[in-house]
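Feature request disguised as a bug report, sorry. It would help if multi-protein outputs had a clear separator. Right now it looks like this:
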Amino acid sequence: MAESGPVFELHRGGKMAVRSTVPLSSREDLSRAYTPGVAEVCRAIAANGALAREYTWIGHVVAVVTDGSAVLGLGNIGPRAALPVMEGKAVLFKEFGGVDAVPICLDTQDTDEIVATVVALAPSFGGINLEDIAAPRCFEIERRLDDQLDIPVFHDDQHGTAIVVLAALRNAARLLGRDLGELRVVVSGAGAAGSAVSRMLVAGGVADVVMCDSRGVLGPNRTDLSGEKAALAALTNPRRVGGAIADGLRGADVLIGVSGGTIEESAVAGMRPGGAIFALANPTPEVDPSIAARHAAVIATGRSDYPNQINNVLAFPGVFRGALDAGVSRITAAMKLAAADAIASVVAENLAPDSIVPSPLDPRVAPAVAAAVARAARGPVGHD
């Protein structure tokens, strides 16, 4: 029995297609677009590989790659069920950044196979956007692809989220009259998004970040930490806080939820009054906005039906547009920080508690981000 309803009707037949950019209405058109004319271009690229950026699509196309292991809040639903999300990502790339994107859903969750497959596919693309790959494998996959490829690799669940969170926090701090560098920030969730958010906040000038996972604060009392969590514990928590999330939140200015779990109001009540709560889990925020409003002056979620939606579409189209325009081989920390500043600047003159980030539909965002990323790419800082 076929599914029905407006959502299914919108998706019927898929959300994207391929179209030609050249005329094919005459024998001459065919001879130039295909044989024999195309052989001239092939020979030129074989002699000078750099010409592929000028004479093929790779200067404006990325692959959106997933293994279907961590799709939205649905979990490990596999590559076929992930395809509607990857199509959606691709059309957002085109609509907001003018970047063509191809969804690639891999029928493997083996790290070595994923890396080898993407490396083998890479000559067809100008960049790789990794999407909905579960932690901790996503960290190794991105690192190995970054090392092996000469095109930008960007895990959006990590870095797109982190960029938009930093932009929102910059504006929230301004609105609250609190110095960004002096904020006490608690990040609930130590997976892909939590890791990248914490690293981005530290790089952006937040000195006091405390991370929590389901077992409590990543701190000196924890003997169960290894790998990425051990590295995060060493990078964060300068006051060496221990205990449960309620202990971490005591006196905190900001809570950033990227965990999907529920945070009790009794824990939130220990925060410094008049701060900020970014409860970003979808569809159910870690702290219900009505509860958050009792303890914070600025509230953000990941949902479109509340103000201040922290939406990755504010970042990734412009980030890739700028990286492709600059012809870089890597998206650096400096480029990510520039993207966050650009997003924040779009609404900087009209800040309000319900407007610390632009609307995802604001046409100013992607061009501002692309320009900032390209400038950072061409600047004196070229490496992480």
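(second protein starts here, but nothing in the output says so)
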Amino acid sequence: MSDYPTSIGRSDETSIQLLGQDLADDLLGRVGFGELAFWLVALRRPTAGELRVFEAVLVALADHGLTPSAIAARLTLAGAPESVQGALAAGLLGGGSRFLGVTEDAGRFLAGALADYSARAGELPVTDEEWDDLARGAVLGRQASGRLVPGLGHPVHRHGDPRTPVLLRIAEEEGLRGPHLRLFEAVGRVHPGVLGRTLPLNGAGVCGAALCDLGFSADILRGFALLARAAGLVGHIAEEMRRPIGPDIYRHVDGAADYRPPDSP
């Protein structure tokens, strides 16, 4: 019989083992959910500073109002009130390039730029001027390829995302303002000169940079964004149960529909 190795957990008749700990004796009442989420992915316990930054990221990504993901969850619940899991899944499935996926995209963009620079120079920038040069080259590269710079701009917070300066401050206070955040800030300084317009550094982007500075691979960042948003969606689902708006959204859209035969101009 083949082995199926895992370092996460297992259970038997009398106990549950999680991350090398006894769940009942060592973890319950001793470890918070944020710490456990970090530990499950990193396979190590976070420091107090790392946990503060990590939980700030989760809170920053938990909810942003009646976004498409929240509306999808509410409408799914309206159609299938017995399926909380379906409503939650519907909301999470919308996590992509425009919503929730920006955290991963920004982290991947920053990590790639840092890796390229390090391969050329043998070390990371030191001065603000060097960071700005790196950021300028990265932004120019995206522009040349016709792609947007992830982490720039926000459909609501057009003149500044309120989450961004707070997350930067928390990372600085905990000594965790690392190379990804430094580069992200440099992108904020130089992009107007490249793109010809000024866009805010959005909260999803700064979350991606902060998570990379905590040591997480860009490949897993969307998972954290979805983890955080799951909490917000459960809140929307609970509110939909108490005070439903899904049927009204459906009736409004249906009433506003402009049916046009396929052969009409």
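Even a blank line would do. Unrelated, but nice: The chain has twelve helices and three strands.
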